[in-house]
């Protein structure tokens, strides 16, 4: 439940960014790719948490179903206000995400037995989660280069850390390495982000502007 709550905070954290996009009628220099990655990750982890794939971890399915809805809404808004080239690129990527997920679901149900199916989806979810947790590395690099936390909102970093820590503990208690390993990595990256925020926050006034780059 703690993991679900922290994940919900993480899912709603880009709302100020999209309010800005709607207000300015433009996506400006924002990237829509993090939301594409997050949507794919949520769909794969949602599938892994389904009872016919992995029994007794329904909370994984619930949190990722909510996340998938949020990411789809963000992508739809991004497409609506993007310029023509970004609009086409994001639309194609959105179709590819759903096509890839449909292919994964079809293969796992049609050709794999229950044990192999769980392993197949489990390894995909680990790869997907690690890829998602690796995305803050770009933000961390930017913070170090600019010596500013402008591009790394505190509450987003805190929510990422708490969500990863909660699901790491959940995976350990369930004895499920497909949950604990990637979230353990996410916890470490969350600690790094919070440490950098503490180090550089005194050098940057958060109230000076809205974050120019958001990720989920």
Describe it:
With 216 residues, the chain is an all-alpha fold. The protein has nine helices and no strands. It is globular. GO terms for molecular function: sugar transmembrane transporter activity. InterPro entries: SWEET, SWEET_rpt. Keywords: Membrane, Repeat, Sugar transport, Transmembrane, Transmembrane helix, Transport. Belongs to the SWEET sugar transporter family.
Poorly predicted runs: 206-216
Reported for the largest beta sheet, the result is: none
Q: Helix share of residues? A: over 70%
Q: Structural class, from secondary structure content? A: mainly alpha
Instruction: Name the overall outline.
Output: globular
| Rg value | 18 Å
Supply the number of helical segments.
9
Q: From N to C, what is the helix and strand string?
A: HHHHHHHHH
Strand elements, count: 0
Mean pLDDT: 83
Strand proportion, as a percent range, falls in under 5%
Report how far the terminal alpha carbons are from each other.
20 Å
Offer a few descriptive terms.
transport; globular; 9 helices; 216 residues; mainly alpha; Bidirectional sugar transporter SWEET; SWEET_rpt; disordered C terminus; sugar transport
